[in-house]
Each structure stands twice: as structure tokens, then as C-alpha cells.
Amino acid sequence: xxxxxxxxxxxxxxxxxxxxxxxxxxxxxxxxxxxxxxxxxxxxxxxxxxxxxxxxxxxxxxxxxxxxxxxxxxxxxxxxxxxxxxxxxxxxxxxxxxxxxxxxxxxxxxxxxxxxxxxxxxxxxxxxxxxxxxxxxxxxxxxxxxxxxxxxxxxxxxxxxxxxxxxxxxxxxxx
Length: 175
Known about the structure:
Layout: H1 14-23, H2 28-42, H3 44-50, H4 56-68, H5 74-90, H6 95-108, H7 116-133, H8 139-160
Helix pairs in contact: 1-8, 2-4, 2-6, 2-7, 3-6, 4-5, 4-6, 5-6, 6-7, 7-8
């Protein structure tokens, strides 16, 4: 068995490069709204499947979504992100749930740091891959599943992207 990684995806892959280029053309608002919604639709269910008794993550995600939509306060969103990150740290013995929790918290953190609109996808690729394939596959199998997830995310962002966005986020890639 391969050692499980926190994040999956090859940042030099075609799908990652395309995601980063598209992210650079979008505003912080567009990116945060998309990231929160994508995380909710694709990673919350993974989390809930592995932590069925924990219903707090959906509420925390809702607080971040409210802020992104202009209906909530930044302080509440920041507190929600902090609580989601703490929950992710507590899940060390549950790698699928932990990856999903990291994807959710990092996706929400795009409200502060637009580059998180890319980073959350790498955690999400791990969550989806480990959830679908289990925890005993070879690296290549996980990498192929991660690439599929990243292509799906790219298609989603392409649908949500605003052509000619007036105020694209200032992104500094540290990868």
C-alpha cells in the first residue's frame, strides 16, 4: 500500500495549469463563491458519509457562503473557517473525512486568500479519490482519480467564470 498523501494532483498537469490560469482571470468574489459552492456540492457529502453524526460542517459552510454572498459578517466566516480547520486536525485517524474537511475549510478560505480556490481542489481530489477507491491503492491509481476530479473542477470553474472579469484577483502562486 502506498502512503496516503494529504493532497493529490500534479501541479504541472494540463488540468492544474488550466485551473491556475483561469483562476488568475477571476475576481476574489467570483472565486470564493465558486469555491464554496463547489466544495459544498462535491466534498460535503464525502465528509458526511464518513462523519454521519457530525452535522456542524454544513452550518459552518453556510456561514462562509452567507458572507461570500454579502449576507453575513466576515468575523463569523473567519470563525467558521477556524472551526473547520480544527475539526480537520481532529480527524487524523480518518483520512477520507480529514481530506474532505480540509477541502471544505480551504475552499471557504478563498474569501480571504484567492489562491485557496486552487488549493482546496488538491485536498478535494484526495477526499474523492480515497472515498471512491479506498485506502489501499497504488499511487498511479490515486493520481488518475485525482486528475479526473481536477478536470471536473476545471469544467465547473469554466462554467462559473466571468469573461473579461473587471477586477481579477492578485494571485501569488507558491507552488
